[in-house]
Amino acid sequence: MSPADALPPLPAELNDPGYNAAIENIVRWTPVFSSLGERQPDGPDFLCIGAPKSGTSWLFSNLACHPTIWMPPIKDLQFFSSVHLDGFAPAATLNRLAQVAAARAFWAGSLHLDEQTRGAILDTLGWIETNDLTDSWYRGIFRNKGVDQVAGEIGHDYGILPRAGIRHALRLNPNLRVMALLRDPATRALSHARMICAAHLAPGTALRLDDLWRMVRSDDFGLLLLYSDYPRWLLPWRGLIDPNRILVDYIGRIRDQPLAVLERVCLFLGVPFDRRLFNVAEIPVLVGETIDRDSSELLAYFRHGLQRIYDEMERWMPDIAEQLRNHG
Question: Which domains are assigned to the chain?
Answer without folding.
Answer: 4-327 (3.40.50.300)
